[in-house]
Amino acid sequence: MTDIQMLGQTAKASTSQLSLLSTKEKNQILNQMAEALEANTQKIIAANQKDLAKADDYGIKETMKDRLRLDEARIQEMANGIRQVATLPDPIGNVDKMWQNADELMIGAKRVPLGVVGMIYESRPNVTTDAASLCFKTGNAVILRGGKEAFYSNQLLVEIMQAVLAQNDIHPGAIQFVDDISREVVQEMMRLNDYLDVLIPRGGAGLIQNVKNHATVPVIETGTGNNHVYIDKDANLEMAVKITMNAKTQRPSVCNAIETLLVHKDIASEVLPMLEKELLAKNVEIRADQKALAYLTQASEATETDWETEFLDYILAIKVVDSLEEAIAHINQYNTKHSEAIVTENYSVAQKFLNEVDAAAVYVNASTRFTDGFVFGFGAEIGISTQKLHARGPMGLDALTSIKYIIYGQDQVRN
């Protein structure tokens, strides 16, 4: 038996104990995990520094180092996220609905754990605590395989949480860490059907496509974020500039930042110079189509590839469109079904955009940066699903459950 198969076997064995924990017990343990993170803040920062020291060796660009970096504030956010998960209603055991059929059977749909969740992810150490806390609250065991760039951070975070499990006599298989960073282990996880109930990749397009194309385990796709803001002809231009700048520059290395700006032709001459001034002040490289170039002084011509690219950097593609319909068509052609936004004061235009844009999260007069499980009130997220089965958007507790039908009878037999 290989090492990864042994992890799978151990995880599977833990699920029976997890299913017996009460909500109160789970919440108490989660709060202890949050306290343990806080108590070990300096150790976590030291481990993270070891990862950051190797970042250049791995060719990680500066904007992506931001995703990797941990400080006291971010560790506090991680602890707060775990605490918020503890405060949320426990979906496990809930009966969503119950009805009587023609045979007078009472049929109910009851929430149950998925079982064993596998996570393959890159860069962001907070994914480790988010995934572990959400899975634990929903009675799922989790096997975490983070990227080599965050190895020391992830390893220590899991050790801290495992220590809390041990203090509470919880089966060690509940939260496990894959300490092998080879690609072969990733390939093996993708075929771990005997032990994994679902596999969730979270990272760049290459990782996600690799898992989608080669996994035999059921996959929930968490997508890349080729996101857009469309500034309508009826937009408040000051609002439009504020929202665009936040969506692009507040944290450009994350999946809910925008990569393309669409501007209606009727207001392009006014809003684009306003935006260019702000973008250049933030050292944003601008790539624009021919129509947009007419209103910009320091931009290069955009290529077809630019419309398709998730830059995760201080780069913004800009296109002037003739109509709302053209904006929607462009978004639906190039987006990754993640997060899209319109800035407009026109109610009918806003409703058309909401109805026709195909994405997990669609905003009116707000930044795409809000697509986040913590912000949505989920405490944390295990990822942002860009598919439609079985979850979509930020995935919280409910997304880590399935349905068991429970049926009450009174001596019925089928004729």
From TrEMBL:
One of its GO terms (molecular function) is glutamate-5-semialdehyde dehydrogenase activity. It holds the Pfam family Aldedh. Keywords: Amino-acid biosynthesis, Cytoplasm, NADP, Oxidoreductase, Proline biosynthesis. The keyword Methyltransferase does not apply. It catalyses: L-glutamate 5-semialdehyde + phosphate + NADP(+) = L-glutamyl 5-phosphate + NADPH + H(+). Pathway: Amino-acid biosynthesis; L-proline biosynthesis; L-glutamate 5-semialdehyde from L-glutamate: step 2/2. Belongs to the gamma-glutamyl phosphate reductase family. This is Gamma-glutamyl phosphate reductase. It comes from Enterococcus cecorum DSM 20682 = ATCC 43198. The gene is proA.
